[in-house]
Amino acid sequence: MLKKRIAMQDIAAETRLFNSRALVAMLVVCSLFSIILLNMYNLQVRSYQDYQIRSEGNRIKVLPMAPNRGLITDRNGILLAENRPVFSLELVPEQISDINSTLAQLAELIVISAEQQDDFLQQVRQQRRFNSIALKERLDEEEVAIISVNLHRLPGVTVEARLTRHYPFGDLFTHALGYIGKINTDDLRRLDEQERLPNYAASREIGKLGLERYYEEQLHGTMGFQEVEVNNRGRVIRVLRSVPARSGQNIRLSLDVGLQLTAQQTLQQKRGAIVAMDPRDGAVLAFYSNPSYDPNLFVHGISSSNYNALLHSPDRPLINRATQGIYPPASTIKPHLALLGLETNTVKPDTKIWDPGFFTLPNSDHRFRDWKRGGHGWVDVYSAVVESCDIYFYDLGIKLGIDRISDYMRQFGFGERTGIDIHEEASANMPSRGWKRARFNQPWYPGDTVPLSIGQSFWTATPIQLALSTAVIINKGMMPTPHMAAELSSENSSELIQPKLKPSVSVIDEKNWDIIADTMVRTVGTLKGTAHNAFRTASYTSGGKTGTAQIVAIAQDAKYDADSLDERHRDNAMYIGYAPAVNPTIVFAVAVENTGGGSSTAAPIGRQLLDYYFSAGVNADE
Amino acid sequence: MNDNLVSPNQRSGKLAAFHIDLPLLLGLLALLAFGLVILYSATGQSEAMMKAQIIRLGVALAVMVGVAQLSPQTFRRWAVALFSIGLLMLIAVLLFGHVGKGAQRWLDLGFMKFQPSEIMKLAVPLAVAWFIASQNLPPKLWHLFVGFLMCAIPTLLIAKQPDLGTSLLIAMSGLFVLFMAGMSWRLITFIALLVSAFAPVMWFFLMRDYQRQRVLTFLNPETDPLGSGYHIIQSKIAIGSGGVDGKGWLQGTQSQLEFLPERHTDFIFAVLSEEFGLIGVVILLAIYLFIIGRGLLIASRAQDNFSKLVAASFILTFFVYVFVNIGMVSGLLPVVGVPLPLVSYGGTSMVTLMAAFGVLMSVSTHKRMLANV
């Protein structure tokens, strides 16, 4: 009985002990659950905003959409730069289990070069996750078909269509239009500085040269975007919001396809440039530099062999001769100097000078020769320009002096960029005392002025400058800013480029303008005129001035013999002109390298240009 | 005295004949139903997976009812045998086990693959309780020592597989028996100090690289947001963005767009938190608390020490599962592969758990017969 009671007491004690432990356990359970609840309160109530934002950031992605680039047409609406669909083979590495085997499979289907594979694999390492990366661009139709048929067994492989630039006239407009190319790090930095980078999130290409570069902002357009919901693999589940891209503005140029083709045909194999513009507003009608090259090569990244061929070609096709070709203007600037002579009363219209065929400075026996052996005899300002008498201008130049020449010629735009709407432009050189001091640390000698007076030695000019200086003569001192773009238009608005004219050359006697214009008309229209032969049978009136620039100095008393000279040392042929003689609508400049005389080579090219201009009625309605 | 003992059965009415504890059953059914609702969303509305889970639930419920029919005395008789078989199987696994996911956990019996550690989840508490309950309580020191040994051997074998999470849970289930048996607080304090001294040894000599990485990631998940920290960051985003009332059923963007990893298994709690918010969390925790409370009540009302200890150990282990899973998913604890009990999608562990609840029901409903013995 006692034993049983002890046992009973033990049971009671055991139960008490167990129950107290159970109570402790229950308290621990409750307190740990409280900790969980407290933590939940922290996450779901106190930090709710924070996690809500992060959750949205997870699921919502903004996909940028590239705008369509604006089109470029000539003055009549003929397409010069258009957008064409191209197909590229693209891969999303994260969706491919074994990249190397997929590459091998693709290589069996279509040709994929080792270079393309290497480029691709390098990009895989650099790109963001879930971005598609191009393996091969510009697939042809057959390749698109082959890949499309096999897509089902190639997960992560897609054929993407997108628009890319195409220049249907190939090399005809290259130096005017330029081209677009892949955005590189320099472009990125420039865009960033201009705070335009966000607009390029979906763009792959940018204007690199010419009008494509100058009007990049207008042509590019405004990026659109889609706000999409994505899953953890980046796949788009649905579109939440969409803002369409706005296409870039279309640009109508003042260039004319027919005139441009004429320019190309007249130059043929010769190196040189032709620029034509409307003197009234600076609208450029023709802008051609020869030789040219196909800009389409650059759109998808030019191969290094093609690029080296262009870069190292002795004909230098990459140089834009129309605005970067630096030529001695030669006799084409004689009308300008004649104006200065008249304006300063250094010569009068009827002042006559004896031309024995050579010119000497006082205290010197160095003979500066005339291009015509034996000289022109008595010459006045008309015959000096018409027959391109060198002696008259040597004499005039010495009388004027470098300072007056330099200052006045600058007003015609020499030594300055014209401000045409491309960035590739040289200022060439209008020398002065200060320039020579800075350049050679030498004083200016009268002997420097003599060749300068016939547009040789240090004086250089670009074809666009020569055409513009002609426009200044026509406009009686008003200088237009040359421009190739005539009209910018978007879907519902269009804006004409306003001509910019500024007074540039001022004269005391307005009649002098007429005299100068008259000398140029006589150069074409009178029997002794250096351009008469070229324009003899023309059905229209025009004015002009030839020029022949020596590339190497000819020794004293030696005869210039083109055949005995290396081709690259032969004379440059120059011509500036305008038409018709009254109320001109076109001025132009022709520069042809190493082909001989201005009257024999350059003037006939001017003739063909004007023949086309009048027969086709370019610019006729204006 | 007899009247007192009979009364619970009378209250349970007809269910008593099937040895079912009604409150516990209702709690479990509420949990399972809520779990299925969450799972439907967490599986991305996969009907195939729902079907599989429902079949598993059916099997698990059948196992529970089946186990409940056996008396606690039966478990007591079989405890040692079950423990020995489990031990042999663990050794077999280490020798010829099947390697899956980098760990040797499975034993291929020919007709089915089987994780012996599941047996040990039941066998360790049963065996330790059998041993401790054979003496008067509180246990003497050398009894405790033997008890520790019975926990330690299977624990080390499972840790060697390696499955640190399960091995620690099994060690816990044995230690709970010792705690409930009345192990002195002084000893508990002493052991706690010993364990904390042992922690550095474990860090440097016992833990594998991936386990250390988990702990490091737990301490600062943002250091490796795309690597091992990704899981916990995404999980916290899911929970936090749920707010008070949640994004709505099937509307959780973190879950439905699969930013949440393991959404239907280990991280299902995050799905609940995102779609049902704090309200859903409170409801789930209330159900769990009810089940645990009922379990402890059953334990304290049990008639013999073996039943008390086994019941308490099972229900406390169940709580540890809940706490470790929720703690891990909400960033309180490092990531260890523990599913949310009876809610996560999964096989064997659910059957084992329901078998344990079967034991609890047996303890709760076999008192009269015990009294009559």
Structure description:
The complex is a heterodimer of chains A (622) and B (373). With 622 residues, chain A is of the alpha+beta class. Chain A folds into three domains: 2-46; 62-249, Penicillin-binding protein 2a (Domain 2) (Alpha-Beta Complex), CATH 3.90.1310; 257-616, DD-peptidase/beta-lactamase superfamily (Beta-lactamase), CATH 3.40.710. Helices cover 39% and strands 19% of the residues of chain A. Chain A has 23 helices and 23 strands. In chain A, the strands form seven sheets. In chain A, strands 2, 3, 4, 5, 10, 18 and 19 form a seven-stranded mixed beta sheet that branches. In chain A, strands 12-11-23-22-21 form a five-stranded antiparallel beta sheet, with helices on both faces. In chain A, a hairpin with a 6-residue loop joins β22 and β23. In chain A, α14 crosses α16. The longest helix of chain A is centred in the N-terminal third of the chain and has 45 residues, at 2-46. Chain A starts with a helix and ends in a 6-residue tail after the last helix. The model of chain A has no long low-confidence stretch (mean pLDDT 89). Chain B is mainly alpha-helical and 373 residues long. Chain B is built from 15 helices and three strands. A three-stranded antiparallel beta sheet of chain B has the order 1-2-3. In chain B, β2 and β3 (113-114) form a beta hairpin. In chain B, α12 packs parallel to α14 (348-365). The interface between A and B is large, with 40 and 46 residues.
